[in-house]
Amino acid sequence: MSNVVLEKVSRVFGDFVAVDGVDLRVSEGEFVTLLGPSGCGKTTTLRMVAGLEQNTGGRISIGNEVVSDAGRGLFVPSERRRLGMVFQSYAIWPHMTVFENVAYPLRVRRKSTAEIGDLVGKALRLVEMESFAERPAPALSGGQQQRVAIARALVFEPKVLLLDEPLSNLDAKLRLQMGDEFRSIQKRLGMTSLYVTHDQAEAMALSDRVVVMDRGRIQQIGAPEEIYRYPANRVVAAFFGTPNLLEASVEACARIDDRRVRLDVVGKGWRGACESASEIRPGQAVTVMVRPEDARIAPPDAAHRDHELRWSGQIAHTIFRGPTRSVVVQTGDGRLNVDAPSFGDFAVGDNVTVVVPQTSAWAVPEQASIAS
Ligand SMILES: Nc1ncnc2c1ncn2[C@@H]1O[C@H](COP(=O)(O)OP(=O)(O)O)[C@@H](O)[C@H]1O
Ligand SMILES: [Mg+2]
């Protein structure tokens, strides 16, 4: 069952289209993340689901109820949508205790004192903040304040939780920890969650499915592994990590299975095979994505094996990153980034071969207008 449904949802500000025909179905209990660069329309989309912003086109439903339909002029106000919300700025009220902060949504809903005591206790236990109930909110650390904000969003047991960059004010380590904690609470409660972030690592670690947005439009929807491994286009390919994006031309195409075809491609000074999602005609241009972690540095005279792509080149420079060493190899077709072992046997100036299994090279239809 779909719990949140967006059908051709748009939002125009003046003549600027901030959100452009978004179609999305979030299932009950699912954790879906809107991911994309700053300004791509994530917050606007979330605010329309929240009822804090009115969509200028399309229709939004929550749990089988249409809450906004631009065509019919229907709009259910935010407070009647039964949503929990957590935003980037925690919006913890400084003059209240932790207990009172979490109790606030229940007082607004005129719950009894006994019920408030029960529900607040339960919410604080979930985020492991029960022993802080009587503390003044400003005495808490950033991570603790964010837990209180999550408890406050959960306290009236909303059908759906909306979160807009809730972790972005925390330092990197705490962000990871809070993300993992939040994910386990969400799973335990089976709560439908729509989450917004510009952080690809966070999106991948938390989500059942990721929605990649760019300039108001959905570029791809899929499980994190699927989007990372099989990007639909160059924008999505370039958004995750720092992949090598190589221009090539298709020579032959053969279907492997429902999902993939095998392409024989020729690039500038190299040729080989890779995989792709859709049949691409011979002669057509493609971008071949090679992730640095799928590439390997081999000696210049390494024996040629089947099912490999190879480039000859020279090591231009290396950057030590701790767990890996980034190696930049100058080839006849530009520079290739390789994630090599931190203490591998190579040095700047070495002649080397860059080797990539053809199953980890992925081609997308060329979109020349979009810079990588
Ligand atoms: N109230 C508004 N008036 C005019 N433009 C807006 C308004 N709200 C958002 N925008 C514009 O819409 C685009 C998308 O904004 P937003 O949804 O906040 O992006 P994101 O959350 O992905 O960073 C941006 O270009 C932003 O400037
Ligand atoms: Mg935003």
Automatic annotation (TrEMBL):
It is an enzyme of class 3 (hydrolase). SMART domains: AAA. GO terms for molecular function: ABC-type transporter activity; ATP binding; ATP hydrolysis activity. Its EC number is 3.6.3.31. It is a peripheral membrane protein. Residues 4-240 form the ABC transporter domain. Keywords: ATP-binding, Cell membrane, Hydrolase, Membrane, Nucleotide-binding, Translocase, Transport. It comes from the Bacteria. It is found in: Cell inner membrane. One of its GO terms (cellular component) is ATP-binding cassette (ABC) transporter complex, substrate-binding subunit-containing. Involved in beta-(1-->2)glucan export. Transmembrane domains (TMD) form a pore in the inner membrane and the ATP-binding domain (NBD) is responsible for energy generation. Belongs to the ABC transporter superfamily. This is Spermidine/putrescine import ATP-binding protein PotA. It comes from Bradyrhizobium ivorense.
